[in-house]
From TrEMBL:
<feature type="transmembrane region" description="Helical">
    <location>
        <begin position="155"/>
        <end position="173"/>
    </location>
</feature>
<protein>
    <recommendedName>
        <fullName>Beta-carotene 15,15'-monooxygenase</fullName>
    </recommendedName>
</protein>
<keyword id="KW-0812">Transmembrane</keyword>
<feature type="transmembrane region" description="Helical">
    <location>
        <begin position="194"/>
        <end position="215"/>
    </location>
</feature>
<feature type="transmembrane region" description="Helical">
    <location>
        <begin position="96"/>
        <end position="115"/>
    </location>
</feature>
<feature type="transmembrane region" description="Helical">
    <location>
        <begin position="9"/>
        <end position="27"/>
    </location>
</feature>
<feature type="transmembrane region" description="Helical">
    <location>
        <begin position="221"/>
        <end position="239"/>
    </location>
</feature>
<feature type="transmembrane region" description="Helical">
    <location>
        <begin position="66"/>
        <end position="84"/>
    </location>
</feature>
<keyword id="KW-0472">Membrane</keyword>
<keyword id="KW-1133">Transmembrane helix</keyword>
<feature type="transmembrane region" description="Helical">
    <location>
        <begin position="39"/>
        <end position="59"/>
    </location>
</feature>
Amino acid sequence: MAISKKRNLLLYLVLTSLVVLANYSLYHFPIYKTIPDGAVLGSILDFLIVIPLLTYFLIIRKRYSLKYLGVVILAGYGAAYLIIPNAEMEQYSFLPYIILGSEGLLILLELYILYKVVTKLPKLIKEYKKLSLENSFFLYNLRLALDKYLPNQKVLQIFLSEFAVFYYSLFSWKKKVKVSHGTPFTYHKKTSSTAVYIMLIHATIIESVGLHYLLHQWNEIVAYILLFLNVYGVLYFLGEIHATRLTPFLLTDKQLYLQTGLAKSMDLPLQQIKEFKYYDGPEKFTRKELDTLFDARVADFISEKPTFEILLNEPQTMNLMYGIERKVDRIVLNVDEPNQFYEELNKRLVQKNID
C-alpha cells in the first residue's frame, strides 16, 4: 500500500507538471504566432477538470475529504488566471461565477454541518467541560467530545485542526498544564524545539515583508495570497510552541496518549503494546519504515536518536491534521525523564498482564 501511494504521488506530480508546463509554454513562448482556436478553452478544462480529476483519483479518493477538491479547483482557477493572458480570458468572463457557484454549494454543505454542530453545541460544551476537569489537553478533549456526539464527520476534523491552530497560537499563552488522572511526561524541554519555531517565525516575517513588496509590484492578488499564507504560517508555528508545551505525553492505567505539537497524536490502549524497550536501531529511518512509524519526537536543530521504541500487536490509528489518519505498527519517542517513563510504563504493562 505504501509503495502504491508513492507511485500515485509521483505519477500525479509528473502529470500535473506536464499539464502546467504545456499550457505555460503555449502562451509565453513563441511557438505560435496566434493562439489556436479552442486553445483557451482547452487550457481552462485542463486546470478546472483534468487536474482536479487527477487529484481525486491519485490523491484524494478513499483517503481524504472531498472538501479538498474545492481547494484544488480554486487553485486551478488561480493558475489559469496567472498563465492565460487577460485578453484571452475575457471571452470567458462568466467563469468566475461558475466557480463561485460551485464553491457556494460547498459553503451550503458547510452551513448544514454548522447547523448540526449548533444543535449539538450545548452537549458538546458540557462534555468538553467535563473532560477539561481531568486535564488541560484542548485538542484531545475536543476530539473526544466530537467523536461522542458527532462521530465520523471528516469535514469537522478539518475545522477542528484550524480551530486548534488559532486556539493555541492566540488564546493559550497563560495556560498551564493540568492533569488530575495519570502521569504526564514532557518531551521538549531538553530539545531546541522552541528555538526552531522562533527561528521559523522570524524567517517568515522577514520573507513576508520583502516578498510582499516585490510581488505587489507584479500582481497584487498573488502578493496578498502569499501574505495571508505567511500570517497563517506564523500562527501555526506559535501554535506548535504552545501545543507542545501544554500537551505532555500522558500515561494512565489503561492508555498512553501521545500528542506531538499540533501535527500528530495517538490514543494508545496499553493492551495493544506488544513490546516496550530502549531503541537500539539506526539514527535514520528508511522511507519504507516511516510509512508505518509514529515518530513522536519534536523538531530540533540536531535530531537526537530515539530513546524508546514501542511495538504494537496490530496497527493503530495515528491522527494527523485535517482529519487525515494513518495506520502505524511502531512508535519511537524521547522524553525529558526517560528513567521515570521506563519504570512507570513497565509497571503498568506488568499490572495489565496480571489483570
